[in-house]
Amino acid sequence: MQYTITTTNQQGDRKYNQDRVTVLETDNCILLVLADGIGGKKGGDLAAQTLVDTVTNIFETSSTPIEDPKRYLTNILRVAHNAVTTMGKNHQPIIEPGTTAVLCLIQQDNAYWAHVGDSRFYLFREGLSLYRTKDHSYVEELYQRGKISLDKRQGHPMRGYITQCIGHMQVMPTIDVSDEVALLKGDILLLCTDGLWEPLDDAVIGEILSGMELERALSKLTEQALQASSPHADNTSAIAIRINSLTQGMHPKKEEQEKQHEAKEKVHELDLAIRNIEDVLEEYKHEID
């Protein structure tokens, strides 16, 4: 698989940056990780960092490709939840930090994603939002039940109140995990915090991402989100990946390694052929003479 990845992580107008992003890669697997520490609670930055560190440690010791992606993503977030709550208990003084989480696993030309909280995953195809996670938030629940309109949702005074998170409470959060989704050339996958998606319309996000080079597009989206929210702009972070081609799930570095290996094999075969010819010539040398 040939792909392009870019990330952004901006503090905005907040005193601290509690967002965290990371990209983890092997020869046949990619794991994208995004977290937004809960504001108003001490240690939001610690919770987000603990989640990223926990996911990283597990992934780096995992055999890839992942055998059961849906179970893997669920379990990895459960472990992260326990790690965050334990970190809070061991902190002096004791704190109850929390964070949102979005994970996206890409392997064998397929994508799987999981989330907790109101950070989002999008899959854009030809500029249109084909998939989008549903926020674990009070306002999203009101909207889904038909209690408020889309316009009211966007300006609701409790729009920042989330109903699920990693950490903060002992009870295990609700973890939403997608089914397997086959990727196509040109697909763009986006993980982002509410600092990016809240000030912008989904259609605008898709249009900009599909209309220019990926790094420039994400930079433009970030700038627009910060400007629209100024002077109260939230931390604004995102990871975007564009699928440039599908080639048996091959990582770019791995593909180059395979080409080098094939070249060495051809040289080896040629050496063997030459050696066989030399042996034959030696065997029938007296007849040739």
TrEMBL record:
Q: What is this protein called?
A: Protein serine/threonine phosphatase PrpC, regulation of stationary phase
Record-linked InterPro entries:
PP2C, PPM-type-like_dom_sf, PPM-type_phosphatase-like_dom
Stretches assigned to the PPM-type phosphatase domain: 2-243
List where this protein forms a coiled coil: 253-287
Check the record and name the Gene3D superfamilies matching this protein. Answer: PPM-type phosphatase domain (3.60.40.10)
Q: Which UniProt keywords apply?
A: Coiled coil
Respond yes or no to whether keyword Coiled coil is given for this record.
yes
What Pfam families does this protein's entry cite?
PP2C_2 (PF13672)
Instruction: List, alphabetically, the PANTHER family matched.
Output: PROTEIN PHOSPHATASE 1L, PROTEIN PHOSPHATASE 2C
Identify a single GO molecular function assigned to this protein: protein serine/threonine phosphatase activity
SUPFAM superfamilies reported in the protein's UniProt record: PP2C-like
